[in-house]
Amino acid sequence: MAAVKRPLQVRVGSKVFPAVGERPENPVLRNVEFQVEPGSFVVITGPSGGGKSTLLNIIAGLDKDFDGTIDFDGDKPRLAFVFQSPRLLPWRTVYENIALALPKGDPRLANIPEMLKRVGLTDAATAYPEMISLGMQRRVALARAFVIEPDLLLMDEPFVSLDDPTAHALRELLVELWHRKPTTVLFVTHDRPEAVMLATRILRLSAAPATISQDVPVRLSVADRSDREKVRAEQRRIFGEA
Ligand SMILES: Nc1ncnc2c1ncn2[C@@H]1O[C@H](COP(=O)(O)OP(=O)(O)OP(=O)(O)O)[C@@H](O)[C@H]1O
User: Where are the transmembrane segments (predicted)?
Assistant: First the structure.
């Protein structure tokens, strides 16, 4: 079934973490407002501690304590969330970890073998997470997210703590999966080359209390994204350095 195409409207007037003990209240987001067109790949970047994860949690509905609205054209989107840690169940196989994302008897379960093939894990289908590398575990997390066929895919630094070739290969895989089945993606990273390689649009947040300091389209074709020189040139255009 094709994903329903709806824009996402984000309006966060303010997000403040309340004071706890000696710690004063912490205003993290202020007037963060944007719309995301269906099928776009939006990267949210900005300084550490600037509120990127907080914003993603609000959009996911994990944090409801904020002033504002998140609207998916009046509907409830089918969501997938990929976190920094792959969050696999250690007592379930690779196949089972993916299948757990879907209800019993769901027709999308039939797509898992094809998805395993696409992420290069067919031979690891019956392995347990501790038997495979972190890079492979992250491929399982990608497969689990895409097999849901989400309307909205939220990703919070899913490729940190990997060596560069592994992270690069995973980014290429993500671009390919997304290109085959464009879904709306919001991807948080502080890694600028990663932002440019993946995004169709980059939102930069300022330091906290964060607001949007830059909203810029990325002008790279899918083929250009594997070309490090072209990525670097686009990075210079957007961020003024590389
Ligand atoms: N549950 C919480 N309670 C109180 N303060 C929090 C909570 N979660 C985050 N914060 C604070 O909110 C601010 C923004 O944190 P957040 O994790 O959203 O930033 P970030 O931009 O994702 O940072 P990084 O790039 O380092 O992951 C930080 O000052 C952080 O300490």
Answer: none
Ligand 1: residue whose CA is nearest its atom 28:
49
Tell me if 162 sits within 8 A of 132, measured CB to CB: no
CATH 3.40.50.300 in the chain is located at 8-78+150-239
Give the C-alpha distances (Å, rounded to integers) separating 114 from 51, 108, 169, 171, 175: 37, 11, 19, 19, 17
Q: Give the residues surrounding ligand 1 with Cβ less than 6 Å away.
A: 17, 26, 28, 48-54, 190, 208
DSSP state of 200: S
Determine contact, residues 51/208, Cβ cutoff 8 Å: yes
Q: Which two tokens stand for residue 196?
A: 């440019």
**Which CATH superfamily, name and number, covers 8-78+150-239?**
P-loop containing nucleotide triphosphate hydrolases (3.40.50.300)
Q: How is 204-240 classified by DSSP, letter by letter? A: EE-SSSB-EEEEEE----TGGGG-HHHHHHHHHHHHS
Q: What is the pLDDT of residues 215-239, one digit of tens each?
A: 999 999 988 988 989 999 999 999 9
Instruction: Write out the E strands in 20-76.
Output: 26-36, 41-45, 67-71
Q: How much distance in Å is there from the Cα of 208 to the middle of ligand 1?
A: 9
ipTM for the whole predicted complex goes beyond 0.90: yes
pTM over 0.90: yes
